[in-house]
Amino acid sequence: MRHAPLLMNDLYFPELTGKEEGRVTATIRLRENHDIFKGHFPGNPILPGVCLIQIIKELMGEALKKQLQLTEAGNIKYLAFINPHVNNTLNIEIQYKTNEEGEFSCNSRVFDENRNYCSFRGAFKVHPEGLGSRRGVRS
User: Fold this and answer.
1) C-alpha distances in angstroms, 67 versus 2, 23, 61, 100?
2) pLDDT (tens digit, 9 = 90+) per residue, 59-85?
């Protein structure tokens, strides 16, 4: 079954694989021929790091059924390049807590069976423009 994409005109196809209080897990499949890879970089495609943070935000928002906005990027480590022709299926694990102001602090990682690609520690709040769910993640 094909899943509706979330980011940048179908850059990835997500599937939530686990959701419990304080924890979200998902698997995504990158679309190898997406236009972003033509420019980043021609002949040597690499997923831009900022896209990983956006994907984490969107998956967490989908699991919480809230539109989120990044408020803090406390620690981001890019540990390995993601070439969509070599490793186009990735796992994402997000652990989060909510504070008194309703902000969500999270620790997350992007990985596959061979390595960790990114770790992110930061915070999100509910976007003031909308509380609704984004489209298309299979739960």
Assistant:
1) 23, 17, 5, 18
2) 999 999 999 999 999 999 999 999 999
